């Protein structure tokens, strides 16, 4: 097996893969979409096969947050997609088979993705294109050992109860490496999160499930590194596991959130035209159309609708050393599209432009935006899911709070360790996709790469 690349050689290979294919993505009016159209009677945007996904309306009533009721378009994709990484141990260290993959919504077109990233409609070839490479490693009978197999959510603000099957399969055999694939050590893969818009959301989701594979601190570890290492040790947390689970369950029980789908043409406060669907205040997001040409994909030419957010997101965990152990300030947040109402997310997760009224700004957003350079342990602009969202980006950060930051926090927040969060990733629908991304970035800090 040939182990590729670290540092500059990988980046050279990645640039070569981009140059080896033709990629073109153009905005087009919704009325110009092929095989997609507005459904008679509802105005929902649907594919003529009845598969892939639908964009329909959602009506929400909630006792959570500053906005008790609202309507919005939402992606309804009931299929469970597959996100899988093949791994192999070399010298005791895990190496991952990663793919350079084009997605129409990516701001830079090509990003690093899992070995397999496919919806059920794709891998059952509803699009009539070529098959999915390496799918046989994840389907029964599998050619390897299962390390991870868990259902995880996607963006609860834009998807209705969407989940993906996150899998990691360990092999001992040589695996043929396609042109758009390469082997990277787990440490190197995590380290690439330091680059803007390089590792895609789906890869970050699967990598988060390997958070237990961390490097020990070096002999000269400073105070932060030592506190980070202790965060992965059991029995060092401020709160007992039972206390955390009880708080999380109580949060779900206390909030009253009701949602129901409605015809897209009936959503209040949104304007629909042949070009796009957008909010009357110009905030939140629009539904737009794109035309795509990509020689590296199973289908080389297609059109589709995408969600185009207005403004970049801010996603951050606040960190604090408590009794010499690094803790993360976790927020139990409600989103209309979650399967079970509440999931654990970062301290701050929002698009600031959606909150022009200072009274409605999310808690701790001002602290995150005002953090000094010395407090920032990690910061990068990362893309959200490029198969459904158009140039959606967020600034992801890990920010160490000062000693004066209070231990006591509001009811919807709790201090938790990396070990506690990693343990919850063996279960479905506990940690949202934004929190999972930042856990990968935190793991990368253990090796100071």
UniProtKB/TrEMBL annotation:
Domain of life: Bacteria
Start and end residues of each dTDP-4-dehydro-6-deoxy-alpha-D-glucopyranose 2,3-dehydratase domain: 10-210, 243-442
Lineage, opening ranks: Bacteria, Bacillati, Actinomycetota, Actinomycetes, Streptosporangiales
Name of the protein: NDP-hexose 2,3-dehydratase family protein
């Amino acid at each position: 097996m040939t182990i590729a690349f670290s540092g500059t050689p990988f980046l050279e290979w990645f640039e070569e893969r981009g140059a080896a294919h033709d990629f073109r993505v153009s905005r087009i009016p919704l009325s110009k979409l092929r095989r997609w159209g507005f459904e008679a009677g509802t105005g929902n945007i649907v594919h003529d096969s009845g598969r892939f996904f639908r964009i329909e309306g959602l009506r929400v009533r909630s006792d959570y947050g500053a906005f008790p009721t609202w309507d919005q378009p939402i992606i309804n994709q009931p299929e469970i997609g597959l996100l899988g990484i093949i791994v192999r141990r070399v010298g005791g260290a895990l190496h991952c088979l990663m793919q350079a993959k084009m997605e129409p919504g990516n701001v830079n077109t090509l990003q690093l993705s899992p070995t397999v990233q496919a919806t059920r409609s794709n891998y059952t070839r509803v699009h009539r294109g070529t098959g999915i490479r390496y799918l046989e490693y994840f389907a029964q009978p599998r050619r390897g050992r299962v390390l991870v197999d868990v259902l995880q959510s996607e963006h609860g603000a834009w998807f209705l109860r969407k989940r993906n099957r996150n899998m990691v399969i360990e092999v001992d055999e040589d695996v043929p490496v396609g042109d758009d694939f390469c082997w990277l050590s787990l440490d190197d893969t995590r380290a690439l999160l330091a680059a803007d818009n390089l590792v895609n959301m789906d890869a970050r989701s699967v990598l988060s499930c390997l958070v237990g594979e961390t490097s020990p601190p070096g002999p000269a570890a400073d105070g932060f590194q030592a506190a980070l290492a202790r965060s992965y040790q059991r029995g060092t947390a401020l709160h007992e596991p039972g206390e955390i689970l009880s708080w999380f369950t109580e949060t779900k029980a206390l909030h009253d959130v009701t949602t129901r789908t409605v015809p897209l043409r009936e959503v209040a406060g949104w304007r629909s035209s042949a070009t796009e669907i957008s909010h009357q205040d110009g905030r939140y997001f629009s539904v737009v159309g794109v035309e795509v040409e990509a020689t590296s994909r199973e289908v080389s030419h297609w059109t589709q609708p995408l969600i185009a957010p207005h403004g970049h997101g801010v996603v951050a965990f606040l960190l604090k050393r408590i009794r010499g152990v690094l803790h993360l300030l976790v927020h139990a947040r409600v989103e209309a599209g979650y399967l079970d109402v509440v999931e654990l997310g970062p301290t701050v997760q929002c698009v600031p432009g959606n909150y022009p009224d200072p009274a409605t700004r999310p808690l701790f957003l001002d602290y995150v935006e005002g953090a000094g350079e010395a407090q920032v342990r990690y910061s990068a602009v990362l893309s959200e899911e490029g198969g459904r969202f158009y140039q959606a980006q967020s600034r992801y950060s890990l920010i160490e709070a000062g000693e004066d930051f209070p231990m006591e926090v509001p009811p919807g927040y709790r201090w938790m360790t990396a070990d506690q969060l990693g343990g919850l990733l063996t279960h479905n629908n506990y940690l949202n996709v934004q929190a999972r991304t930042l856990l990968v970035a935190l793991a990368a800090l253990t090796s100071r790469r």
